[in-house]
Amino acid sequence: MAAEPVSVSRATNIHSKFRSFTRNINDKSQAKLLFYSRIRASKKYSIDDKNNVYKQLGLFSLKKKIEDTVLRAEMLTPTALELEEARRIKREEMIRECNLWEDPIKSNEILIKLAGSAKVVDALKDLKYKAEEAKLISQLVEMEAINYPLFKQAYIASLDVRKLLDQYEMSRLLKGPYDKQGACLVIRAGSKGFNPEIWTEELLNMYVKWAAKLGYKGRLVEQHASMQGGVKLATIEFEFECAYGYLSGERGIHHKINSQNGSVHHEVTTACVDVVPLFLGTGVDIQIDEELIVSCSPSLLKDEKSHTELTVCLQHIPTGISVQSSGERSHFANKVKALNRLKAKLLVIAEEQKVCDVNSIRRDDIVDMWQKETRRYVSHPYKVVKDVETGIELPDLNSILDGNINPLIGAHINIRRTD
């Protein structure tokens, strides 16, 4: 009986020391490690207990995202893989039945589609593998109670899965005749606002970062700097499939709006974005009478004599459409590039006007990109991005300028699909 007070006293002393120890822990990571060790000491948990643990660690939402992404992949991938495998097999049969030498043009089209099908199948297999990896790691986390490095690995794997899912689903919605092509994107600084050249450079960086997040690289072929800093004109080529389908909704005026010190007067800075298809593996399928194309003075380059000597600017007389190229190393290469851009732009306009060829384009109905407002980026007094055509609003301006524009792109694709 005498031993009991001693044990109680010792327990009280230990408890007091433990409380003193935990009060002195200021580092969050140390507190987490202590919490993990206490969790591992338990032998059994209920599902609710585990969810409570995740909540206390601030990881419950991440756990839910991993589970939702894996479930989404498990529902989509088998059906999509079966469908794309069937398409690939069908195109392989068409190749075997087709005489490649009798009709080279048709054979080339089938080969391009077959290569595309093979890429989609490989991407879906990769998606399936990554989903299984994320699921397996999540299960290992459950077995080990909480293992933060494993949990982080599962979350990173789920992000890859989500990115592949989003890309596949968006690509399936692209039904336009040129949506599968690459893209040539041109950004021009406006004449209004404070330092429009700086704003143009911000947009340029936004699109380059967007491509990098998809695992691609935008090729900057033209960049004309301003004496005051920033960029007056920039041209980027995205040489990957579906780039035009993704970016065609970006065409038009991009406004940056700023209101200082609560003033009712807004400072608006403008830049104009234009996008034309960049045909991958094939030439532009259109013939234009050379007499209808003339050389004209290049814009924005009057003070850049070194560039002007190589720059080619072409104008299509019936429509008034003009394009330029100055990024190549020779005058001839710039002429070829400019001609391809002009043809691509005319094809897009003909498609928009629903006419059979470029000769039927109605000049008065051509949309002036400088008159088409696309997006507003509000930087003060609050930060928000408003897409004019789709009506979507996103609260994180900095994230958008960091290249996270897929929600905006997806909204435009859905609008086009509905139309």
TrEMBL record:
Xref: Pfam families: PCRF (PF03462), RF-1 (PF00472)
MF-aspect GO terms: translation release factor activity
SMART domains the UniProt entry points to: PCRF
GO cellular component: cytoplasm
Domain Peptide chain release factor: 132-250
Similarity remark: Belongs to the prokaryotic/mitochondrial release factor family.
Protein name: Peptide chain release factor domain-containing protein
Organism in which the protein naturally occurs: Dovyalis caffra
